[in-house]
């Protein structure tokens, strides 16, 4: 099926829409609608180098989807996360340490820091909150447990669970909701909706139009789209198989041993086998080992042993 607009959940699509110099106004408008209550008006942004190395050889490097700063020197990490990871929140916190540490100054320094914002656009739902169907936005800061007041306001994490955002275009109540709508539904739209007749959305849809790509851009997008679809299909298949095998093994061991431990062990083994199946499928597509590790939560060394 041919579509008119790119899929923003692909690496190519997300970068084209938000992470390139011609798209700077689009990202600026999105961040303003997302952060206006706590940030006020962001007047300008500058794209920064998105690859960061640790201070020592044993530190892992971080590669952000988008990394920028505003006119006040405050830092913004914007990440697109296509699949659930066991330690996704840990990774998100770890990534936030890079723009914190890079603010350190040589010589005399009073430790004053600029604010750091980490924004995650998620193509999945947090498992622990999956039944809270109306909650799709998480604003996280350091708070005092007793008073529930913000203890430190310069470190902010915002997560957007896109599968939970289900409003139709006639139900949108704010410009921020319009942004969520176009991000989630862009690929299935066949025209520029009249309800979004604003200059910034006109630029967004023009940037997203597949027919305006060069031949090289289109080929790159097709590879990125295939990668996204293969990853989604592999994850969905492995999850289904893992659940089935886990339930079957759990029932079998539960009957034999007569204990709940048997069912739990079967479920865990089924899920682990599902991860291996995903990794094997992604290896066949010659994807980078680091990408496979992110998708499966297996280590690179474990994946190498599967070859």
Notes on the protein architecture:
The chain is α/β, with parallel strands linked by helices and 307 residues long. The chain has two domains: 11-212, no CATH class; 217-304, no CATH class. It is built from nine helices and eight strands. Strand 5 (75-81), helix 3 (88-101) and strand 6 (116-122) form a beta-alpha-beta unit. Helix 6 runs antiparallel to helix 7 (260-284) and helix 7 (260-284) packs antiparallel against helix 8 (289-296).
Residue-averaged pLDDT, rounded?
A: 85
Q: What count of helical segments does DSSP give?
A: 9
Question: What integer value in Å does the Rg equal?
Answer: 22 Å
Major β-sheet strand ordering = 1-4-5-6-8-7
Task: Compute the separation of the termini in Å.
Answer: 34 Å
**What oligomeric state best describes the polypeptide chains here?**
single chain
Which spans have pLDDT < 50 for at least 5 consecutive residues?
none
Estimated share of beta-strand residues:
5-15%
Proportion of helical residues: 40-55%
SSE run:
HHEEEEEHEEEHHHHHH
Number of domains: 2
- The counted number of beta strands is 8
Q: Tell me the structural class.
A: alpha/beta
What characteristic shape results from the CA principal axes? globular
Main beta-sheet strand count, sense and barrel state: 6 strands, mixed
What keywords describe this structure?
single chain; 307 residues; alpha/beta; 2 domains; six-stranded mixed sheet; two-stranded antiparallel sheet; 8 strands; globular
Q: What does this entry show, briefly?
A:
This is Rpn family recombination-promoting nuclease/putative transposase. This protein is of the alpha/beta class and 307 residues long.
């Amino acid at each position: 099926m041919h579509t008119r607009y790119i899929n923003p959940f692909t690496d190519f699509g997300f970068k084209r829409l938000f992470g390139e110099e011609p798209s700077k106004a689009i990202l600026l408008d999105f961040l303003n609608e997302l952060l206006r209550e706590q940030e006020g008006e962001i007047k300008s942004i500058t794209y920064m180098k998105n690859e960061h190395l640790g201070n020592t050889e044993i530190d892992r490097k971080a590669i952000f989807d988008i990394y920028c700063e505003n006119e006040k020197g405050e830092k913004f990490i914007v990440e697109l996360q296509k699949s659930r990871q066991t330690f996704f929140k840990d990774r998100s916190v770890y990534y936030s340490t890079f723009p914190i540490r890079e603010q350190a100054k040589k010589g005399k320094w009073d430790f004053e820091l600029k604010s750091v914002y980490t924004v995650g656009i998620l193509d999945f739902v947090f498992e622990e909150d999956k039944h809270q169907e109306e909650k799709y936005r998480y604003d996280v800061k350091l708070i005092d447990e007793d008073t529930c007041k913000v203890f430190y306001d310069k470190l902010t994490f915002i997560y957007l669970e896109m599968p939970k955002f289900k409003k139709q275009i006639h139900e949108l109540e704010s410009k921020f909701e319009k942004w969520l709508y176009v991000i989630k539904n862009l690929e299935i739209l066949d025209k520029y909706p009249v309800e979004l007749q604003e200059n910034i959305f006109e630029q967004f849809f023009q940037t997203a139009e597949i027919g305006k790509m060069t031949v090289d851009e289109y080929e790159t997008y097709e590879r990125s789209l295939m990668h996204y679809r293969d990853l989604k299909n592999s994850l969905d298949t492995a999850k289904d198989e893992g659940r089935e095998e886990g339930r079957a093994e759990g029932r079998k061991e539960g009957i034999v041993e007569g204990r709940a431990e048997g069912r739990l062990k079967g479920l865990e083994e089924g899920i682990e086998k599902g991860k291996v199946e995903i990794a094997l499928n992604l290896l066949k597509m010659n994807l980078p080992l680091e990408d496979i590790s992110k998708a499966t939560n297996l280590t690179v060394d474990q994946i190498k042993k599967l070859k």
